[in-house]
Each structure stands twice: as structure tokens, then as C-alpha cells.
Design goal:
The structure holds 2 protein chains of 2 kinds.
Chain A: E1 9-13, H1 19-33, E2 40-43, E3 50-55, E4 58-63, H2 64-76
Parallel strand pairs in A: 1-2
Antiparallel strand pairs in A: 1-3, 3-4
Chain B: H1 8-141, H2 145-157, E1 164-166
Classes of the chains: A alpha+beta, B mainly alpha.
């Protein structure tokens, strides 16, 4: 029996991941969000660096762009 | 008597003359004359009395007038003093009000200047932060591949940043 296909499960990175990096990323993704369907990978230079994990309406943003954004908010507060 | 040089006939005639004259004067001249003199004296006395009375009344009037004048001078002085006091009080009030207004203006101006200073500081800080973030983005964009991969490793290994958010938050 095939597992249901879950849409909107993806991992964003600023550059192409190596196979080792992909494996580790998928493992982290499944650890956080559960499920069995593997996420897709997408290149997004706007994140500058790091990774962004997206699952349906949930996001885990570990990107450099997000860190800089949080830093700016903190400095302006 | 003739030895003394006195003629007794002449003396007798003169005496009779004198008596006749005396009698005539006493009977017909002296009474009206005395009456006239008395009336005149009376008139003079009355005039003097009237004059004295008038002088006395005039003096009394003068005194009354002087009293009245002094009273009015006193009242005028009091009024002048009252007006001076009121004017001084009003002047004091105006000066005090002007001082308060000037003080308020100064405080308001100082507050405005302080606000402007703080606003300028905040804007400068914001610009500095924006510039710093832009610079950081530029630096990160120009990292080498190894440096970029180390960021990916950090994202994979760092569990303290595993904070899942909803997409709309």
C-alpha cells in the first residue's frame, strides 16, 4: 500500500546540497514533523545560507536571512 | 469890685445872657442834638454788630469750606492710593502671568528639542542598523562554498533553533 503523498513538504537551501547533507536534512525533517513522505528540495538564494524546513502550514526557519531579520528586530526594539 | 476891674452890671448881663442861652439850648437844642447823636451812636453800634456778625459768619464759612476742602483732599488721596494699589496688583498679576507663560514656552521648547534629539538619535540608530544588516547580507552572499556549507551544517546540527512556526505567524 502506497503512503499518501503529502504536498508542501520541502527543504530550502541557498545552494545545492550534497547527498550527505540531503540525508541529514531529511532525517531532521522527519524527526521534527513526522510522517513518512520525504520532502522535496528547492534552491532559494534569498535565504542567504542555512536551511528552511516547510511542512504544510508549519515552518522551521534556520536560515541566515531569518537570523539577520531577528537581529534587526532585537536591535530596533 | 471896681477895684478888681470887674463891672458887675456887665457881669450880670452876661450871666443873664448865659442863662438865657443855657435855657434855650437845654430846651430846644440839646435834646434833639443828643437824640440825634444817640441815634447815630446806635446806628454805628448796630453797623458794628452787623459787621462783626458778618465777619464771624464769614470766618465760620471759611472754616467750613476749609474743612470740606480737606475732607475732599483726603478722599482724593485715598482714591489715588487705592488706584495705585490696584494698578500695582494688576501689574504684578500681568508680570506673573507673563513669567508663567514664558516658563511654559521654555519648557515646551525644551521638550520639543529633546523630542527632536531623541527622534534624530532613533533615526540614526535605525539607519546604522539597516546599513549593518545590508552589509551582513552582502558579506554572507559573498561567502565561499565551504563557508556556506558550514552554515548548512550548523542549521542541521543546532537543535536550540528548532522553533517551528505557523506559516501565517
Amino acid at each position: 500500500m502506497r503512503a499518501p503523498i503529502m504536498s508542501n513538504r520541502e527543504i530550502l537551501s541557498a545552494l545545492t546540497l550534497t547527498p550527505d547533507e540531503k540525508q541529514k536534512a531529511v532525517a531532521k525533517f522527519l524527526k521534527i514533523f513526522g510522517g513518512v513522505a520525504a520532502p522535496t528540495f528547492r534552491i532559494a538564494p534569498e535565504i542567504l545560507g542555512g536551511l528552511v524546513f516547510k511542512n504544510e502550514d508549519k515552518i522551521l526557519d534556520a536560515s541566515v536571512a531569518e537570523e539577520l531579520s531577528q537581529l534587526k528586530k532585537h536591535l530596533l526594539s | 469890685m471896681e477895684g478888681l476891674g470887674i463891672d458887675w452890671r456887665l457881669l450880670l448881663i452876661q450871666t443873664i445872657n448865659f442863662l438865657i442861652l443855657f435855657f434855650v439850648l437845654k430846651k430846644w437844642v440839646y435834646p434833639p442834638l443828643i437824640k440825634f447823636l444817640e441815634a447815630r451812636a446806635q446806628k454805628i453800634q448796630e453797623s458794628l454788630a452787623a459787621s462783626e456778625k458778618m465777619r464771624s459768619e464769614l470766618k465760620s464759612f471759611e472754616l467750613e469750606k476749609e474743612k470740606e476742602r480737606q475732607k475732599m483732599a483726603g478722599e482724593a488721596q485715598l482714591m489715588l492710593e487705592r488706584v495705585r494699589t490696584e494698578a500695582a496688583a494688576e501689574k504684578g498679576k500681568i508680570i506673573e502671568s507673563a513669567k508663567v507663560q514664558a516658563g511654559n514656552i521654555v519648557v515646551s521648547a525644551q521638550a520639543q528639542i529633546e523630542n527632536e534629539k531623541q527622534k534624530t538619535k532613533r533615526e540614526a540608530a535605525r539607519e546604522t542598523i539597516d546599513l549593518s544588516i545590508k552589509l551582513a547580507r552582502k558579506i554572507v552572499s559573498s561567502l565561499s562554498e565551504d563557508e556556506a556549507r558550514s552554515l548548512i551544517d550548523k542549521a542541521l546540527e543546532n537543535e536550540s533553533s528548532d522553533y517551528v512556526q505557523s506559516r501565517n505567524s
